[in-house]
Amino acid sequence: MIEGGIGWVALVNLVIWTGLFLYLLRLEAQVRDLEKER
Amino acid sequence: MRRLLPWALWLWICAVIVGAFYYAPLAAKFIGQSSRILFFHVPMAWASFVAFVAAGAWSVLYLWKRRPDDDRAAAAAVELGLVFAVLATLTGAMWAKVMWHAWWNWDPRQMSIVIALAFYGAYLILRGGVEDPEARARLCAVYATIGLVVAPYLYFVMPRAASFSLHPQPVVNAAAKVEMNARMLQVLLASSLGFTVFFFWVHGLRRRLLRLADRRAMTAATGSVAS
Fold first, then answer.
1. Are B205 and A20 in contact (CB under 8 A)?
2. With contacts defined as CB-CB under 8 Å, which chain A residues touch B94?
3. Which residue from B76, B99, B201, B213 has the highest number of Cβ atoms inside 10 Å of its Cβ?
């Protein structure tokens, strides 16, 4: 399935996870701000 | 401290990813590197099960206490459970293509997750089909409570009851034993824990968003009545 080394697959996994994580962190900050407004 | 918890989760999942590719050995009788998908596929299926059971638990709480927040929590859990179940199905199909040379094989475990997707998909259809918020919450809570019996059956009983399956043995096998390489088991458990915490984090976020949306709808309704 993953010929020619698995390093790049691990790296892509790390990048996707970090991107998703940062997006969720930003979303959480936005929700917190909205809750404060109300 | 609370701000550090998400970062701890980030670090944990990063460690799981590195562990899945560099620490855990390859499983025997698997083609190429395909066994590494186990560390993501199984925790996703596990997280979907946790989500569906949590939805049932919040539904029981709603029927008991009649708090709208429990209804929102159940709805958010079903939504996320479906996302995790779809991801588990897709990763399973990718693995099946490598091992069985076909994306779909009508295997008992594939069928059980499809039935779970249909069952909880129907929950969302039911939610969208009833306008009165109280009737909707009550009906959905009863439905998700039934899921407390359906989900364990679909995830644990049905695949084991089948006389034949191409799917590898479950983590806890028919003899109630875990026969897995220690390193693989460590990464699998760490990943399952990480995905479970991730589910509860995102669930909290979704629940708060639903609460804000409900408040906004209520304010809009009150405003239109006043005007």
1. no
2. 1
3. B76
CA distance B87 to B20: 18
Residues B115/B154, Cβ–Cβ less than 8 Å:
yes
Give the other-Cβ count within 10 Å of A23's Cβ.
10
User: From residue B104, how far is each of B100, B109, B166 by CA, in Å?
Assistant: 9, 11, 11
**CA B81 to CA B56: how far, in whole Å?**
12
Helix (H) or strand (E) holding B141: helix B133-152
CA distance B9 to B112: 30
- Is the CB of residue B170 less than 8 Å from the CB of residue B160? yes
Task: Fill in the amino acid letter for A1.
Answer: M
Backbone dihedral region for residue B5 (phi beyond 0: left; psi -120 to 50: alpha; all else: beta): alpha
Query: Measured between CB atoms, does A12 come within 8 Å of chain B?
Result: no
At B171-224, the pLDDT tens digits run: 666 666 777 888 999 999 999 999 999 999 999 999 999 999 888 888 888 877
- All residues of chain B having their beta carbon less than 8 Å from the beta carbon of residue A1 are 31-34, 37, 94, 98
Q: Dihedral (C-alpha) B1, B6, B11, B12: value to the nearest 10 degrees?
A: 100
DSSP B174: T
The contacts of residue B77 (CB under 8 Å, 6+ apart) are B51, B52, B54, B55, B58, B203
Tokens of B42: 């199984």
Q: Give CA–CA dist B8/B94, Å, rounded.
A: 30
Distance between CA atoms of residues B216 and B227, nearest Å: 16
ipTM confidence: 0.84
